[in-house]
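ok so i was messing around last nite and threw this chain in just to see what happens. nothing serious, just curious
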Amino acid sequence: MKNIGKTIRLLRIQKGWEQVKFAKKLNLSNPAVSKIETGFTTITLSRLHQIASVFNLTTAQLLAQHNTGNAKEKDERAEILEKIRQREEEIMQIQMKIIQLYEELYKKDNV
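result:
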């Protein structure tokens, strides 16, 4: 997904942020941000999430901003979006389990 860097750069410029300021927001070095924007480094899902949150976007919204590219990049995007969907489902299941456990604990304390 090398072209995602172009999208990130465009969003940064639209915000009026210099690369140095953007790097500070991400707690990265300026060269690291440059590598992301030029596609010289692979962006992990967690880094993508971090970048999206700096722009006040979800990871899915950031990927939707990046709607150009070849078939391989579109497949990679679809794969990442599916992983995000799966993680969100896992989080919801964990939250439901926590609520159930809390309710059980609360019932025991009140008996």
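not much to say yet. The mean pLDDT is 84.
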